[in-house]
Amino acid sequence: MNTTYWSWDRFFEALPFILDGLGLTIFLTISCFIFALVFGFVWTFLRRIPNRPFNWIVSWVMEFIRTTPPLVQLFFIYYAWPVMPLVGTTLSPVQSAILGLGLHYSTYISEIYRSGIESVEKGQWEAAQALNLSTLDKWRKVILPQAIPPTVPMLGNYFIILFKEVPLVSTISVAEILLLANTYGARNWAYLEPLTIVGIIFLLLSYPSSILIRKLEDRMNTRFDKNALAKSS
Amino acid sequence: MIIINAVIEVFPQIARGLGVTITVLIAASLLAYIMAFVAGLSKLSNNVFIRKATGFYVEIFRGTSLIVQLFWLYYAIPMLFNIPLGTNWWIGVIAIGLNYGAYLSEVVRSSIVAVDKGQTEAAIALNMTSFQRMRLIIFPQAVRMMLPEFGNYTILMLKSTSLVSLIGLRDILYYGDIIRSTNASITPLVYTLVLVLYFLLALPLIWLTRKGEGIAKKGVASS
């Protein structure tokens, strides 16, 4: 029994082994976030199609994705999708991870876009119409440039949340830091040190980022109408 | 017909995990609510040490992932306290409860701070003690503001109970995984049913959250 207590030797042996996965963790965070940002727009667009039954279906589909566990969604995409009749294709673990987490968080991101769009003053919509702008120009030149910048701190918060969700994908055998920590643990029958390392890595990266976002939030608040977003949400 | 038969066969097997999913959710929610009020109020304490200690707890749990905390506690608790494994249910409850308690403590703190300053001043003018002020004036107004966020976080907790299957607890997902590993061809059906079951559990929570939003908005001037 040499495994009961904390060992600094093990700590420093496990450290480089786990840090090998950090690049993949960050890559996945960024990829999932980009996927969620793009797909969030798709949801927002679908919800604005003026057709009641269609809207109702879209919002319940979003609700379903948002209120069911991302872990099960990952399992669905990784294990179930390949054996689906007709549409099934095999996805690599990394592809499944990006698709799964990206889709889950796109429903949250869409909600943020919505609050941003609704915070654009009514006069701006009317002005765009009065100027006879095409729908595309209205969105591109008037609405979105005003709707998106105030949402940046909120999007940033979701980036950090997503970063902390990425270790979920260790369950579908993506070799990010948590999987490597568990691998090290299984090999040496010592989990405490490697898992502590993972915790420290998350703390070291997410805590400064959250302070940065808070600063950004303050700056945005002074630049834009403080209450515009709060009012609409 | 084949699908309906499969559903009839698979559903009861998955539903065996309902007990664990629901009990973990209830126990973890209670722990989280208690931690939220304890930590949220401690954060507003005049004592620097209490504030710092609470801040440490909140930042540790908010700064790392729940899944990492769950595994860490799973291996660390038996080691540190020299108790045998097999108390996984408690470990799941403690991990989820402490994690969401940290998030909710921020909701409690910010709601209390958000109560209009004039209310405190009026209470002081009425010669109330600080305890009376909190209990009779600030707290009732703050709790109303907290309701929607408590609902949202409870839904998040329901989702995160699925993680306890990773430490061997027999919840809905655990039984789903068992069926998947014995009969791969019905995997899509199995996970669809698991997702639907989670959604059905979430529906009352969604409804309560919307109710909470109504209560929070009622009688508040929309500035």
From TrEMBL, chain A:
<keyword id="KW-0813">Transport</keyword>
<keyword id="KW-0029">Amino-acid transport</keyword>
<dbReference type="InterPro" id="IPR010065">
    <property type="entry name" value="AA_ABC_transptr_permease_3TM"/>
</dbReference>
<feature type="domain" description="ABC transmembrane type-1">
    <location>
        <begin position="22"/>
        <end position="213"/>
    </location>
</feature>
<keyword id="KW-0472">Membrane</keyword>
<feature type="transmembrane region" description="Helical">
    <location>
        <begin position="189"/>
        <end position="213"/>
    </location>
</feature>
<dbReference type="Pfam" id="PF00528">
    <property type="entry name" value="BPD_transp_1"/>
</dbReference>
<dbReference type="GO" id="GO:0006865">
    <property type="term" value="P:amino acid transport"/>
</dbReference>
<feature type="transmembrane region" description="Helical">
    <location>
        <begin position="22"/>
        <end position="46"/>
    </location>
</feature>
<dbReference type="InterPro" id="IPR014341">
    <property type="entry name" value="Ectoine_EhuD"/>
</dbReference>
<dbReference type="InterPro" id="IPR043429">
    <property type="entry name" value="ArtM/GltK/GlnP/TcyL/YhdX-like"/>
</dbReference>
<dbReference type="GO" id="GO:0043190">
    <property type="term" value="C:ATP-binding cassette (ABC) transporter complex"/>
</dbReference>
<keyword id="KW-1003">Cell membrane</keyword>
<keyword id="KW-1133">Transmembrane helix</keyword>
<protein>
    <submittedName>
        <fullName>Ectoine/hydroxyectoine ABC transporter permease subunit EhuD</fullName>
    </submittedName>
</protein>
<keyword id="KW-0812">Transmembrane</keyword>
<dbReference type="GO" id="GO:0022857">
    <property type="term" value="F:transmembrane transporter activity"/>
</dbReference>
<comment type="similarity">
    <text>Belongs to the binding-protein-dependent transport system permease family.</text>
</comment>
<dbReference type="InterPro" id="IPR000515">
    <property type="entry name" value="MetI-like"/>
</dbReference>
<dbReference type="InterPro" id="IPR035906">
    <property type="entry name" value="MetI-like_sf"/>
</dbReference>
TrEMBL record, chain B:
<feature type="transmembrane region" description="Helical">
    <location>
        <begin position="20"/>
        <end position="44"/>
    </location>
</feature>
<keyword id="KW-1003">Cell membrane</keyword>
<feature type="domain" description="ABC transmembrane type-1">
    <location>
        <begin position="18"/>
        <end position="202"/>
    </location>
</feature>
<dbReference type="Pfam" id="PF00528">
    <property type="entry name" value="BPD_transp_1"/>
</dbReference>
<dbReference type="InterPro" id="IPR000515">
    <property type="entry name" value="MetI-like"/>
</dbReference>
<keyword id="KW-0029">Amino-acid transport</keyword>
<dbReference type="InterPro" id="IPR043429">
    <property type="entry name" value="ArtM/GltK/GlnP/TcyL/YhdX-like"/>
</dbReference>
<dbReference type="GO" id="GO:0043190">
    <property type="term" value="C:ATP-binding cassette (ABC) transporter complex"/>
</dbReference>
<dbReference type="InterPro" id="IPR010065">
    <property type="entry name" value="AA_ABC_transptr_permease_3TM"/>
</dbReference>
<keyword id="KW-0812">Transmembrane</keyword>
<feature type="transmembrane region" description="Helical">
    <location>
        <begin position="150"/>
        <end position="169"/>
    </location>
</feature>
<feature type="transmembrane region" description="Helical">
    <location>
        <begin position="189"/>
        <end position="208"/>
    </location>
</feature>
<dbReference type="GO" id="GO:0006865">
    <property type="term" value="P:amino acid transport"/>
</dbReference>
<comment type="similarity">
    <text>Belongs to the binding-protein-dependent transport system permease family.</text>
</comment>
<keyword id="KW-0472">Membrane</keyword>
<keyword id="KW-0813">Transport</keyword>
<dbReference type="InterPro" id="IPR035906">
    <property type="entry name" value="MetI-like_sf"/>
</dbReference>
<feature type="transmembrane region" description="Helical">
    <location>
        <begin position="56"/>
        <end position="77"/>
    </location>
</feature>
<protein>
    <submittedName>
        <fullName>Ectoine/hydroxyectoine ABC transporter permease subunit EhuC</fullName>
    </submittedName>
</protein>
<dbReference type="GO" id="GO:0022857">
    <property type="term" value="F:transmembrane transporter activity"/>
</dbReference>
<feature type="transmembrane region" description="Helical">
    <location>
        <begin position="89"/>
        <end position="108"/>
    </location>
</feature>
<keyword id="KW-1133">Transmembrane helix</keyword>
